[in-house]
Protein: Secreted protein (Por secretion system target)
Amino acid sequence: MNMKTLFALVLLSATSVVFGQTTAVWNPAANSSSTGNFNEAANWTTGTVPDNTIKVVLNVPGAQDCKVTDTQAVYQLVMGDNNVGEILRIQDGGTLTTDNTIWSAIGYNDQAELIVESGGTITFGQHMWVGLIAGGEGTVNITGGTVNVTSMTGLGWDGGVGYVNVKSGNLNCAQFHDTNSIKDGSVMDIEEGTVKITTGLTVDAFTTNYVANGRITAYGGSGTVVVEKIDGDIFVTAIAPTTWNGSWTNGAPSAGVNAIISAAYDGEGFTCNNLSIGVNALVNIASGTLDVQGDVLVEGSLSVASGASLLTYEANSWAGNATIYRDTRYADGKYSFVGSPVQQDAAITGSLLGTSVYSYDETQNYDTDSGLSRWIDAANTELVPGVGYTQAFTQSLSFVGAPNSGSVVVSGLSHTVAAAASTSDRGWNLVSNPYAAAINVETFLADNSTVINNAIYLWDDGGSNAGRRTNSDYITANAIGTVNNGPSGDSFHGYIASGQGFFVQVTSETADASVTFNESQRVSGNNNSFFRKAKASSHLKLALAGEFYNELLIGFRADATTGFDKRYDAVKLKGNDAFSFYSLLNDQRLAIQGLPELTSEELTVALGYELEQAGTYSLSVAEMQGIPAGYDLIIEVAHKSYVLGMGQAVTLELPAGNGQMTAHLRKSGILSAQGSTDVRVFNDGSQLTIAGLETGLQDLHLFDLSGKACFEALAVTPDHLGSWSAMVPLESGKVFILKVVNGRELTSIKFVY
Structure:
C-alpha cells in the first residue's frame, strides 16, 4: 500500500468515526480560568473535562498553555485546526492517551506545539501526524518525557511540515514507513534523548533513507546521529559536537564526534566525524593525522604540513580547499619523484613542481640513448593523480584543492617489447601515491599483483645534476624488505609517503595496463619520510662499496620458492651505469631475492656485479638477522673463500666488467668443542678454511679419531677476519679433530669434513 492510499484510508476512517463526535475546544480565556489545567472543566467549551469519548481541539489563538498534570484520556487530539493552536504541555506526573481507532494531529492545517516534559507521558493509540496537510506546521518537543506512538508516525504528510525535537527523554514508534515517515522539509532532531523505532529496515537502509538526507539530525545538524539495531528494533541516539574556540568545548573530538573549528588551530591531527571550519578559522595540521570520517566543510583555511597526514573518504562530501605541503629531499638540482595528492584541475600543472619536470614514457625506444628519450617535458602538463613526475630545484611543494579519496586508477601503463632489446628495460612506469596520507607498500603490491612485479623502485639522487656517473640509484622495496644505495641509513620504512613517486614494472606486453590505489591501502601517520623500512624477520643483506655503494637482500619466507616469486623477488633496476650489485636467479638480476626458510645443510646463492672500473672494493655484511644458529656465511670470490659475520667486511680487487661471486650459508661441521667456541672449520673441495681464530701466531694440528696426525701448520697468522686457508686433502665425510695452540691457550674442535 503506498502512502497516498494509506493516508486516504486513514482520513476516510477518521471522518466516518468523527462525524457527529462531541468536540471540546480548549478556551480558558472565555471561561475566566487562569490556571491552564487540563482537568478544569471551565477551561473547555463543553464545560466538562474531556474523556475518552471526546475529540479535543486546540485552535484558539492566544490561549494560555494547556497543562496535563494527572492521568487523562481523550478520543482524538487535533491541534492547529483552522487556527493556530496553543501549546499542550504534558508535565511531571501527567499522562494523556488517545483512542486506538483514530489518528491525532499536531499542526493539522495550522501551527501547533506539543511539549512533553520530564516525568510526562503521551500515548497515541493510533497514528501521530505532525504537520498533516497543507498549512499544517506541527512541532513536538520532548524535554525529558516519553511519547509513545502505537501505530504510524508521520512528519509533514500531504503538504504539511513537521518537527520533532528529542531534547531528552524517549520517542517510541511502533510503525515507521520505509522511506516516507519523515517527508522532505520535515526534521526529527535528537540531542540527549532516544528514539526507538520498530521497522524492518536495516541500519544501512535506515541511515540512507533518513539520516543521510537530513531528515533525522543531531543537535540541530551539528552533532552525529547514531543508528543501531537491537533485538530487531532501530535505536537512534545522538553525539554532541565539540567546538574549538581556543580549547575544545566538549572534549577533544574522536570517531563519531563532529568537530567545529571557529578559531585558529595549529597543532596535532585528530579523528572526528564531520569537520566544519568556520570563515575566520585558520587550521594548520602540523603533525600526526587528521582523520575525518564524515563530511568536510572548509569556509576558512585548512593546511596540512609536510609529514602530517589527511584522511578523507569517498562516500562523504567535501566543500572548500585544503593546502597540502610536501618537502622533497633536495633543494638543488638533484631529482625527486613526486605526484599530486589533490584532485585534478587545469590550474595544477607541472610548473608548480619547480623546474626540470618530466614524465616517463615507456613506449619510447630505450636502446638509442639508454632511455633518456623516455623522459618527456611535463612543465606545462596538467598533473594527473597517481602519475609520477620528476622535479628539481624546489624542495617545498604545495598543492591546493580537494584531496584525493576513493579509488584512484592510473591507466595507460605499458610494457612495450619493441621499445627495448632487454627485458630488464621494458615495462617501467612512473606512478605516485595520490593521497594526502601514506600508503602501505605491501597492500598496494598485493592489490596490483596481477599487473606488476611486486616491488617498487624509489629514486635516491646522489648527484645526477653533476652528471650521469654518480651514486644515484634506486631504493628497491617489496614484501621481503628493502635495499639501498648508500650506507647512511636512508632507507624505506614500508610506507609510501603522500605525493611520493616511484617506478613499477608491468609484467606482460600491453599498451593499457592499470594500477589501482585504494583507500584501504592508506595508513595513519608514517608520512614523515620517503625512506626507511623495518626488515624481514629472517634475511641477509650484503653491500658492495667502492666509489659507489649498492646492496642486495636475500630474505627467507615459508611460502617462498627457489624460482621467481612475484611477491618476493624484485628485479634490479639499474640507476647507476658505473656500478651494480645483485643476486642472480638463472640469468635474471635481482635486487631482492626471496627463498624458502633456511633448513638445508647448505644454501648457495649466485651473486653478480657490473663495474665500470677495476679497483679495490669492500664487500660487507650490512644486515644479518634471523639466520638460524649453526649457519656460517662464506663468500667465494675468484677461488678464495671468506667467512663473514655481521658487520664484517673483506677487501677485494675486482676487474672491470661483469663478474660473479657465490654466497654460501652452510651449517658448521663442528661436533663438539673445548676452549674457544668461535673457531669454525669449512671445506671447499680440497681447501680447508679455519675461521674465528684470534690474532697473532698460532699452531694448527689435525688428527683423525685414531689420533694419527693428518696435517699441521706452525706459526700461522690469520687474516684480518680471523681466517686461515690452505689446500689440505682430507677424506670427505670423516670426523677429524683440530687443535689450535695460541700461546698457552688450547682449543680443540671435533668436526665432520
Summary: Residues 329-394+404-521 form one domain. The chain has five domains: 23-239, 242-320, 329-394+404-521, 539-667, 680-752. Residues 1-19, 465-471, 530-536 have pLDDT under 50 and may be disordered. The first helix runs from residue 3 to 18.
